[in-house]
Write a structure and sequence with these properties.
This protein is an all-alpha fold. Helix content is 72%, strand content 0%. It has helices spanning 2-5, 14-24, 29-36, 40-47, 56-66, 71-74, 85-92, 94-102, 112-116, 120-135, 139-158, 165-185, 189-206, 209-225, 229-244, 251-270, 274-291, 304-317, 321-328, 339-355, 359-372, 374-378, 381-393, 397-406. The longest helix is centred in the middle third of the chain and has 21 residues, at 165-185.
């Protein structure tokens, strides 16, 4: 019991936060049920923690009804348990990354040494390193390198040589993307949104048409996250129109087109339009077939493998556990595939098993996700809520140990 007491993390769940938000508006459970489009029994089950409030589609419905941000229900960002040393290190750099983002657009006032030692080849290598950490979901390492990297790139971008101008802003956009993913994975959504705005700005400065479109992929994601599906859809449709106008597109454009179709499928799944979501998934599969290989253009990992993974994510988003399990069991991940995507697959697989009543398999999948990407898994809102629900309704040894590491016990 002493081990549990030392976690330093509250065990409040999404249902309790939902009840508190409802009470703040002085609504009855029936009023919330009516406004959100759910039954009274469902609202009671969510608030009592007997039913997992983990699906973004459902969280967004309640957030819109209560006029709050989804994180007010999910509780993000989370404080790692005191026993989670790596987690503590991962979040220790958040403030420094935030400061670097806030300095964007301000005079950098470099020292003479900083101004004299700008090394573009070295900056390129450092951005590549940051992206490797991003793809590995190595959040502690990402946080360690990003503050200084962003500062050095901002110095280089203030007065770039004409011959290097586009390259500098291209690198800056990529580094801002790394910051965005680092913050998003740790649940610091507002800071991640700030980073996304920086990505858009730097991409425009790069004057690379595909780089600019790639930035809009993340911009669409911002609207998708808060349930503004029409805005997200408009950004996606505009990008697909521009990509469709390219004659004889190269593999980078095909990858980007496929990635936008995947984003469209997710947006529509959360907008409760399953048929249209599957149509866009099919178009993504066609783009992946056209490529014939897994690529990593724009750090999006698009190709046949990632499309198959999204084929698991979509039914999970729609709460179709059996469909998701059936798809997951057909997935074969190549050796050396991105740890970030690999771990997210196991998270989706775990939630799919939970929805289909296969709890032991769900725990195994979550443990595998945690092994591959400890911090990203422990900070994942869906994992935390699902594991918490399982613990509240059926305590088991390994499950409780996982709950302790997640901070939900």
């Amino acid at each position: 019991m002493a081990h549990i007491a030392n976690t330093g993390v509250g065990a409040e769940n999404n249902g309790q936060r939902l009840a508190r938000l409802r009470a703040r508006r002085r609504w009855t459970q029936q009023r919330l049920a009516t406004e959100a489009g759910y039954s009274l029994a469902a609202v009671k089950a969510f608030e009592q923690g007997k039913r997992s409030l983990d699906r973004p589609q459902v969280v967004l419905a309640f957030a819109k009804a209560l006029d709050c941000h989804p994180t007010e229900i999910t509780g993000a960002p989370y404080v790692p348990a005191d026993t989670d040393r790596d987690g503590q290190e991962a979040v220790a750099s958040v403030a420094a990354v935030r400061r670097a983002l806030l300095r964007h657009g301000r005079p950098t006032r470099p020292t003479e040494q900083e101004a004299a030692t700008v090394d573009f080849a070295e900056l390129q290598q450092r951005v590549a390193e940051a992206n490797r950490y991003r793809q590995a979901a190595a959040l502690t390492k990402s946080g360690a390198v990003l503050p200084a990297l962003l500062r050095d790139l901002q110095v280089a971008a203030e007065f770039p040589p004409q011959a290097r101008r586009r390259q500098v802003f291209w690198l800056l956009a990529s580094a801002y993307e790394c910051a965005m993913q680092y913050l998003y994975k740790l649940g610091h959504n507002s800071d991640a949104t700030l980073a996304t705005e920086r990505v858009l700005w730097a991409s425009q400065k790069s004057e690379d048409p595909l780089r600019i479109l790639a930035a809009r992929w993340y911009d669409a994601g911002e609207f998708l996250t808060i349930g503004e599906h029409d805005e997200a859809g408009a950004i996606i449709d505009e990008a697909l129109t521009e990509l469709g106008a390219i004659r004889s597109p190269g593999p980078e454009a095909v990858s980007l087109r496929g990635a936008f179709h995947l984003k469209a499928s997710l947006n529509l799944a959360r907008a409760i339009d399953g048929k249209a979501a599957l149509t866009h998934l099919k178009k993504a599969e066609q783009a992946a077939e056209e490529l014939g290989e897994d690529r990593n253009d724009w750090q999006m990992q698009f190709g046949p493998t990632n499309t198959a993974l999204w084929g698991v994510s979509l039914p999970v988003e729609m709460g179709r556990g059996k469909d998701a399990v059936a798809r997951a069991e057909q997935v074969k991940l190549p050796a050396g595939y991105s740890r970030e995507r690999h771990s997210h697959f196991h998270i989706d697989r775990g939630r799919a098993y939970f929805y289909s009543g296969q709890r032991e398999q769900a725990v195994r999948a979550f443990l595998e996700a945690e092994r591959l990407a400890p911090q990203a898994t422990r900070a994942h809102a869906g994992v935390r809520e699902t594991v918490g629900t399982m613990i509240r309704t059926q305590k088991r040894g390994e499950l409780v140990e996982l709950g302790i590491r997640l901070g939900v016990v």
